[in-house]
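WARN no homologs supplied; continuing
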Amino acid sequence: YDAQGRLAGVTESHTVTTSWGGGNAALGSTASTSTTNGDPTRAAPKAIDGFYGDEQLGWLSATADGSGDWLKLDLGSVKELDRIVYDTRYAPAYLTTVYQSAFKIWGSEDGVNWFSLLEKSGLTSSQLFDVAITPVKVRYVKVLGIQSVWTAYSTWHYAYVTELGLFEKAGTKT
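OK structure emitted
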């Protein structure tokens, strides 16, 4: 409120609450993609802004068959991760028939040699994955192999990432 008692501004925020682990290393990282659809509200940074749930944004590829598209993060330095939060819920909420049937999340210390952090397949609905992983050191993280489905449109297979959180092991520096 200002000096006259009027509402001066409103701030809206969404967070994922955690009772364990370190901070979200994806926040403030550099994101790049294989393609983007040109809409700034669907650009790569929207996939790592910390908004989960009903957010209507996130990265969206430009390719109708997005199976070869990817989102890559550079965390700036090597981080030790022990948790991944990955949101495949595609908003707005009434689009419940959009989901990822498969995806892969890989990590690398050098950007050349990649290894699996989390992989899922055979999925039949969108969901929020909150997964503890064996602590691993990475600087780069890539989401790839995204197989998306919109049951109302058989040719709609755009790759998308609504949100990706990469949490550091407790006690490690952010």
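Strands lie at 30-33, 59-60, 71-87, 98-108, 115-121, 128-150, 160-161, 163-168.
OK
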